[in-house]
Design goal:
The complex is a heterodimer of chains A (196) and B (467).
Chain A: E1 8-16, H1 23-26, H2 46-49, E2 71-74, H3 86-94, E3 98-101, H4 106-115, E4 118-121, H5 124-136, E5 141-145, E6 150-153, E7 159-161, H6 166-174, H7 178-183, H8 186-194
Parallel strand pairs in A: 1-2, 2-3, 3-4
Antiparallel strand pairs in A: 1-5, 5-6, 6-7
Chain B: H1 8-14, E1 17-20, E2 26-29, E3 32-35, H2 41-50, E4 60-63, H3 80-96, E5 99-101, H4 111-117, E6 126-129, E7 143-146, H5 149-158, E8 160-163, E9 167-174, H6 183-194, E10 202-207, H7 209-212, H8 216-224, E11 233-235, H9 240-246, H10 255-265, E12 278-283, E13 290-292, E14 300-302, H11 317-327, E15 342-345, H12 347-350, H13 353-363, E16 373-376, H14 381-389, H15 392-398, E17 424-427, E18 442-445, H16 448-457
Parallel strand pairs in B: 3-4, 3-6, 4-5, 6-7, 9-10, 9-12, 10-11, 15-16, 15-17, 17-18
Antiparallel strand pairs in B: 1-2, 2-8, 13-14
Helix pairs in contact in B: 2-5, 6-8, 13-16
The chains are: A alpha/beta (196), B alpha/beta (467).
Chain lengths: 196, 467
């Protein structure tokens, strides 16, 4: 079971050049009360996106129609804080399939892959280039290739490779998930448990 | 290989690897799994959709804590969404035969408080929960960390998760802590030095005489905050303090089983000559009572200092300015004397009996400032009972404080315990993120002593003047 497979994604991107974006900002705790994985995108960045009267804040990037795309580009240490997978669900549900940053928090990185979002870690210099390019042209496209493990700024041709382990890459390319893998080795696990 | 020196972390990790995947994570066996009402329902739904069951229901323990009210717990929960999550937890645990300490159960409380206090958390174990502060249990020499809901589903269905082995870091703090300097201050000090991402990718071992001399409650506070510097978890080698804490607790091993396990626990220490990927040492005498001034736990400082200038810090000046702007503070401001509207003592960080003893030591014989709203929230019913037994309840009441019922409460404000927009709260919890304690709330993280001093004076106050 799982999610859509991820191969090559070419898209414009939404820039969020803020450091230490924590998962409480991505989805505040008061929106964690659902018992199904539905509708979290509506509350993505809720308190940065809407004022206290639930009106969109015009100065927040998601409310600026100039910027759109399936790639979210964040500042250093993206996704810190709470382990809530709802943060990854909200990003996915909103329509993003890839998050780019110069540094990710551990749990968020794992959760992202587990829901089918590709976290792409680039150098601080390359991140700066991406922000600069989007500033020049909000429609500037990025191309993320999972098979090649590269991210390219289409207009300039500037490219960088990124890391992902072979197991997770295989899963994402095929839309497999860890639970499938673990189900297939249940006997081995039961034996291990017995011998402990 | 077996003769080379091993760290505490290696010993516990390596003994739980079911399978190593080439160019991939380890299939990692989990001894204890805690669940709560917020991050488990989608995992149970996943089981249903796949048509799989819970492999080892006796290894999972459920409690309700995140969204529960802290008053009138005998009445039906008013918020329909919270009530539904609590109902789902009850249904799911009952369906699969999982132990459940729901609202009203005498063992109910915050997951990271009730696990240790009932003897479920033991040295050498691997422990996970869909909550990042699962790192708390590392205080017992366990590998404990927070996981996402997909991983909750993995543990339920296979008792394993897929994890690449983290790097190893040792943090040493040596010397004598000064007056009024608590475990919370030690942790906030370390985080302020490392930043919120300084330990990302690492698993931490805390070592040195400061931790050796610390109580289990204090060790839990320190390990709890490991995640706030980005580490997946932190651990402390078990010793006599650990064994004494565990001995006699309800679900702890007894008799011959105790002797056998104790012999194993005594091997759980880092061998001399072990190598860490990173090692850092601090001096206890450099640590003051701490307070945070910004919107992440790394933005902390000694309470007598002034807010740093952006130019003196690494990192983006615009993110720093955004943070201070949110807090309504300026560079170079002194924190002492800043007005405080709310005080919160509780949470998985500082909701144990020792924290309330510390709080009471300052408020005893004094009065709460009139303009301060204080929420005093025990971490569990067991802690609540101790507060009564030890006479702390009377001290609190005479000083004008009301005791609430156990739960996560204002730490993440999923229930009604929300700090209003723009208001300042001195909080013994773990996160000062924007809106963490309610939309627009402004959080100053600190120890129970600093919280008590603020509650009495109504402004940020150095607690040492009361000691």
């Amino acid at each position: 079971m799982a999610y859509d497979s991820f191969k090559v994604l070419r898209s414009s991107a939404v820039p969020l050049p803020i450091e230490n974006v924590d998962t409480d900002q991505i989805i505040p705790a008061r929106f964690l009360k659902a018992t199904e994985r539905k509708g979290f995108g509506d509350n993505l960045f809720r308190d940065w996106r809407y004022d206290k009267n639930d009106q969109p804040k015009s100065d927040f990037i998601l409310n600026n129609p100039t910027y759109s795309g399936k790639i979210l580009v964040g500042g250093k240490n993206f996704g810190s804080g709470s382990s809530r997978e709802h943060a990854a669900w909200a990003i996915y549900d909103y329509g993003f399939r890839c998050v780019v940053s110069s540094f990710f928090a551990d749990i968020f990185r794992g959760n992202s892959i587990n829901v089918g979002i590709l976290p792409v870690q680039v150098s601080p210099e390359f991140l700066h280039q991406i922000f600069t390019e989007i500033e020049k042209d909000p429609k500037a496209e990025l191309e993320v290739s999972l098979p090649e493990q590269t991210i390219t700024i289409v207009s300039t041709g500037a490219s960088e490779s990124f890391q992902i382990n072979g197991y997770k890459k295989h899963n994402l390319l095929n839309g497999f998930d860890d639970i499938d893998y673990l189900q297939a080795m249940k006997d081995e696990i039961a034996t291990f448990a017995l011998n402990r | 290989m077996s003769n080379s020196p091993k760290t505490l972390f290696d010993k516990v990790w390596d003994s739980h690897v079911v399978r190593q995947i080439a160019d991939g994570p380890d299939v990692f066996f989990i001894d204890r799994h805690f669940i709560h009402e917020v991050t488990s329902p989608v995992a149970f739904l996943g089981l249903e959709q796949r048509g799989v069951s819970v492999l080892f229901p006796e290894k999972t323990f459920a409690t309700a804590d995140h969204n529960t009210p802290t008053i009138n717990q005998h009445l039906p929960v008013e918020d329909p969404l919270s009530a539904n999550q609590l109902l789902q937890l009850e249904k799911n645990t009952s369906k699969y035969g999982i132990s459940h300490w729901g609202l009203g159960n005498p063992k109910n409380g915050i997951v990271h408080v009730v696990g240790p206090e009932n003897g479920i958390t033991l040295p050498g174990m691997t422990i996970v929960c869909g909550d990042s502060h699962t790192s708390t249990h590392g205080a017992f020499g366990a590998i404990a960390f927070g996981i996402g809901t997909s991983e909750v589903e993995m543990v339920l269905s296979s008792q394993c998760i897929m994890q690449p082995k983290p790097l190893k870091m040792r943090i040493n703090v040596n010397g004598q802590l000064g007056k009024g300097v608590t475990p919370k201050d030690v942790a906030l000090y370390i985080i302020s030095k490392l930043s919120t991402s300084g330990a990302t990718g690492y698993f931490v071992e805390y070592a040195g005489d400061v931790f050796e001399n610390m109580s289990m409650e204090g060790r839990m506070t320190v390990c709890n905050l490991s995640i706030e510097m980005g580490a997946r978890g932190g651990m402390i080698a078990p010793d006599q303090t650990t064994f004494d804490y565990i001995n006699g607790r309800e679900l702890a091993p007894k008799g011959a089983d105790w002797d056998k396990q104790l012999a194993y626990w005594k091997t759980l220490k880092t061998d001399a000559g072990s190598v860490f990927d990173k090692e850092i040492t601090f001096l206890a005498s450099d640590i003051e009572p701490m307070i945070t001034y910004g919107t992440n736990p790394g933005m902390g400082m000694g309470i007598s200092r002034n807010i740093p200038q952006a130019k003196d810090l690494e990192g983006g000046a615009s993110s720093y300015a955004k943070s201070l702007d949110y807090m309504g503070f300026e560079e170079n401001d002194s924190m002492i004397g800043k007005k405080v509207d709310y005080v919160f003592i509780g949470s998985c960080t500082n909701g144990r009996i020792e924290d309330f003893r510390a709080f009471a030591s300052i408020v005893k014989g004094r009065k709460k400032a009139d303009h301060v709203t204080a929420w005093v929230v025990p971490g569990s019913h067991v802690v609540e009972a101790q507060i009564h037994e030890e006479g702390i309840y009377d001290i609190l009441t005479e000083a004008g404080f009301a005791l609430r019922q156990p739960g996560c409460s204002a730490c993440l404000a999923m229930n009604d315990d929300k700090i209003p927009a723009g208001k300042y709260a001195v909080s013994t919890s773990n996160r000062n993120f924007e809106g963490r304690q309610g939309p627009g709330s402004r959080t100053l993280l600190a120890s129970p002593l600093v919280a008590a001093a603020a509650a009495i004076t109504g402004v940020v106050t150095d607690p040492r003047q009361f000691l």
